[in-house]
Amino acid sequence: MSDRIARTLALSLLLVALPAFAQQTLRIAAAADLQPLLPPLLAQFEHETGIHADASYQSSATLATQIIDGAPFDLFLAADLSFPQRVIDAGRAEEAKPMPYARGTLVLWTRNDSGITSLSLDALRTDAIKTIAIANPEHAPYGRAAQAALQHLDLLNTVHAKLVIAENIAQTAQYADSGNAQVGFISLTSALTPRLKGDGHFVRVPADAYPPILQGAIVIRSSAGAAAAHRFLEFLQRPETQQTLAAEGLEPVH
Amino acid sequence: MDLQALWLTLRLAATTTLLLLALGIPLAYWLASTQARWRPLIEALTTLPILLPPTVLGFYLLVLLGPHTGFGRFATRLFGHPLAFSFSGLVVGSVIYSLPFAAQPLAAGFRAVDAALIEQARLLGASRWRTLRSVLLPLSMHSVVAAAALCFTHTVGEFGVVLMIGGDIPGATRTLSIAIYDQVQDFSYAAANRTALLLVSISAIALVLLYSRRSREGSARG
User: Which one of A82, A167, B54, B181 is most buried, counting C-beta atoms within 10 A?
Assistant: First the structure.
């Protein structure tokens, strides 16, 4: 009797699990700044092509490490060009050069109730601002841009003691949105999400204060979904998609 | 070698262990001796931090310690600065995170003490405090040592909570585990290996001391 139950259970488990293997999926390693805007694009892509895509969001450095160590991704959408280059150097990419697909924008963000009346980069010098969140400059492209901007504006030494370092750009937004850090250098993609738009406001960091955040993509060598990855890259470069990206904080490259 | 991170980690682990013993001994004594109907609820709550993923626990702590909760504002006034991104904040996080590692072995140790001994002590007029100090603690010293070692090593190896509420500030919140993570992220594998070796050595030494003590006790008894 219990034998029959066990057999029925095993069979039903198999029936539930099998479709997952049958369906074609595209596995994307995506930089954390894409988290707010990628899901609707993936849904649209699936609607058009029938290819289901799943994305994992981490800092570009984490993802590069995982891919080099053999993580089963088909496509890497990084937040800069240096991390995809590392994957290329490790022999794990199809391309010889990362393909830039968008340009990121760095903003300074604060909550509306933070008590900071006129938000500006100069305000960082004042005693009113005691904590500034940035992403880790060692391994998050937006953090690197924030550090470059602070250096360019000759602020780095003044504000050094006020900096709190988040693991990636999404966590930087979390530090600022939870009110634990008074201001944060975050991505425009985060600042334009409904939640952060409702909670606070931002100023753009002058574009000449930091090297452009060119975001690069690569297809992972001999991955099962390589063909699907190429189709997604074509989809990403279409003018309509680029327009959607621009509306949500990622400018076209050209 | 990141000596600053090493020193910070040792300070954090020592502070957390001392606080957890101070909190855990009375709590475990209560858990082991009470007949209260809600004892299972309290015991479940003290065990819950094992269940919650550390990053989730860390996220809730970040919200709790922030300026948008009454507790966060109270703590900010009490300490004179917001708790997130500070050493005190890490201590609060670590105490919650490692609480089960103090409460569980201590309660188990207290429960193992012969109930008749406790009853006799109480009949002879000893207060609850005196009973704890003169009967329970001496008879369950191995549990106290085990709890201390577990709290210490668990805090040394803590990562998720620190990542969420720390803010990676050298000398204040960059512990050894965060330093290793940064080094790995930065592709500095050799440096990460050295730091990891240090982390493992500390924990190994603590555990060897613990277990050698246990075997001495065992042979002394036998």
Answer: A167
Range of the domain at A142: 106-204
pLDDT, residue B169, reads 85
**Whole-model pTM over 0.90:** no
Residue A152: CATH number of its domain: 3.40.190.10
Q: Cβ A180–B186 below 8 Å, yes or no?
A: no
Contact A59, A136 (CB under 8 A): yes
Structural domains counted in chain A: 2
Q: Is A147 helix (H, G, I), strand (E, B) or coil?
A: helix
How far is Cα A199 from Cα A197, in angstroms, rounded to an integer? 6
Asked if A6 and A82 sit in the same domain, the reply is yes
A87 in the same domain as A40: yes
Q: What is the pLDDT of residue B221?
A: 47
Of the CA atoms within 13 Å of residue A131, those in its CB half-sphere come to 26
Residues of A whose CB is below 8 A from B80: none
Question: Same structural domain for residues A119 and A26?
Answer: no
pLDDT at residue B184, rounded to an integer: 82
What is residue B126's three-state secondary structure? coil
pLDDT of residue B207 exceeding 90, the answer is no
DSSP at B135 = I
CATH class label, B3-32+45-221: mainly alpha
Say if the Cβ atoms of B82 and A131 lie within 8 Å.
yes
* Contact by Cβ (8 Å): B93, B61: yes
